[in-house]
């Protein structure tokens, strides 16, 4: 592992440790803003994705947006045209804003959203879609002008964003799973090595079991934690202290 990659991983795990000690949403906003600024991000929002009967402002969890932009976004109901939101509903993979497709000629309001956002230094961004197995849809979207979005930084950003989202939801909703017994020892080991960046094949070699068995443990842990992927399962396991780094 290169020194740069090590630094990114170290910052991610340090950020997670700091979040664990926070008890207010304001503190979470401040911690997210401070850490994500190291990667060039100036603004972010954690929000549910509204259904046709919901208004955008009803589903926002936390935000640090430029003054005035939130009011404009709500007033024009941009959430119905925003290509970032649309892609969030159709993928589970993190993506850069530039990867969200829209036709500038035929989707004028989509183009308008993206163009007006640049007036508030929201030119480029990175977005984490969040899909719960019970149908819950949300996203963590962050933006800025000069972003560090290399193949080394994206995994760290993914984990930090997922954990920050889980921490925010945890403060909003005190319900938690039923303690360490929720996961088997092997499931906890598989998630712990996944948190360290190991593949299923690597973990199998370390634990002396097959890659298929490791994958089965991770899938089982995802189901128990109501997580849609390995990264979300790791974030929730850390949040509920089912694993410790």
TrEMBL record:
Residues 176-241 form the HTH luxR-type domain. It holds the Pfam family GerE. Transmembrane segments: none annotated. InterPro entries: Sig_transdc_resp-reg_C-effctor (IPR016032), TF_LuxR_autoind-bd_dom (IPR005143), TF_LuxR_autoind-bd_dom_sf (IPR036693), Tscrpt_reg_LuxR_C (IPR000792), WH-like_DNA-bd_sf (IPR036388). GO terms for biological process: regulation of DNA-templated transcription. CDD domains: LuxR_C_like (cd06170). This is DNA-binding protein with HTH domain.
């Amino acid at each position: 592992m290169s020194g740069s990659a090590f630094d990114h991983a170290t910052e991610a795990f340090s950020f997670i440790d700091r979040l664990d000690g926070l008890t207010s949403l304001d503190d979470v906003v401040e911690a997210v803003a401070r850490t994500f600024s190291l990667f060039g991000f100036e603004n972010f929002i954690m929000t549910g994705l509204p259904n046709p009967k919901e208004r955008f402002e009803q589903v926002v969890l936390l935000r640090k947006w430029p003054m005035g932009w939130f009011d404009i976004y709500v007033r024009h109901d941009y959430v119905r045209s925003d290509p970032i939101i649309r892609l969030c509903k159709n993928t589970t993979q993190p993506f850069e804003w530039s990867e969200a497709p829209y036709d500038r000629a035929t989707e004028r309001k989509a183009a308008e959203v993206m163009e007006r956002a640049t007036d508030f230094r929201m030119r480029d961004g990175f977005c984490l879609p969040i899909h719960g197995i019970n149908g819950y849809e949300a996203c963590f979207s962050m933006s800025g002008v000069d972003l560090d979005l290399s193949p080394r930084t994206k995994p760290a950003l993914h984990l930090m964003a997922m954990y920050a989202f889980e921490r925010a939801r945890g403060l909003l909703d005190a319900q938690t799973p039923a303690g360490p017994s929720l996961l088997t020892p092997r499931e906890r080991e598989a998630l712990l090595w996944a948190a360290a960046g190991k593949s299923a094949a690597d973990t199998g070699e370390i634990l002396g079991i097959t890659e298929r068995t490791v994958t089965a443990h991770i899938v089982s842990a995802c189901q128990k934690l109501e997580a849609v992927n390995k990264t979300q399962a790791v974030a929730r396991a850390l949040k509920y202290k089912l694993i410790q780094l």
